[in-house]
Specification:
The protein has about 160 residues and is of the alpha+beta class. It contains 3 helices and 11 strands; from the N terminus they run H-E-E-E-E-E-E-H-H-E-E-E-E-E.
Length: about 160
């Protein structure tokens, strides 16, 4: 009887500790029309981008159900499957990019150390040619378009009002 009680208390403690470890504080959340196309998926629907301390979450919904869930922190989890950032880049972008590329895209920051950055009145554009990629990246009035023509990758984030 004593052993069962100790096991029950241990199980309860593990449950409480693991539940706390999975929670992230969200500081802002914005609705978007999100389009993602790569060799593994093609999605375009409404969703949310949630930002917190060292954490970003992208969720795409259809008819109230989550179609796609991306969690970015020290590693990157896609629909519950966690990968290192380099594994994620290879899977998602079909190429080896620097580790924080997805963060820069979601935060609408210039990529590749501002390489070929052309500032415009409402944002910026970058066109980057690399041996394994031809990237056209545009941020205009909070509308993000990332296109890698070589690898067939498209990411569009259009804010909803």
């Amino acid at each position: 009887m004593q052993i069962i009680k100790k096991l029950w208390i241990l199980g309860l403690c593990l449950f409480l500790v693991s539940g706390c470890a999975l929670k992230h504080t969200i500081s802002s959340s914005q609705p978007y029309l999100i389009t993602i196309k790569n060799s593994h998926m093609a999605l375009s629907d409404t969703g949310f981008i949630n930002f917190g301390d060292a954490y970003t979450n992208v969720q795409i919904f259809s008819a109230g159900a989550i179609l796609f869930n991306l969690e970015v922190s020290s590693d990157v989890c896609v629909d519950g499957q966690c990968l290192s950032r380099t594994q994620f880049n290879q899977l998602f972008f079909n190429n080896e990019h620097y580790a924080t590329l997805i963060d820069d895209l979601l935060h609408m920051l210039p990529i590749y150390n501002k390489k070929n950055l052309l500032k415009t009145e409402n944002g910026f554009t970058q066109e980057i040619n690399m041996p394994k990629s031809h990237i056209i990246y545009t941020v205009m009035d909070n509308l993000v378009t990332f296109r890698d023509n070589t690898n067939g990758v498209l990411i569009k984030l259009k804010p909803l009002q």
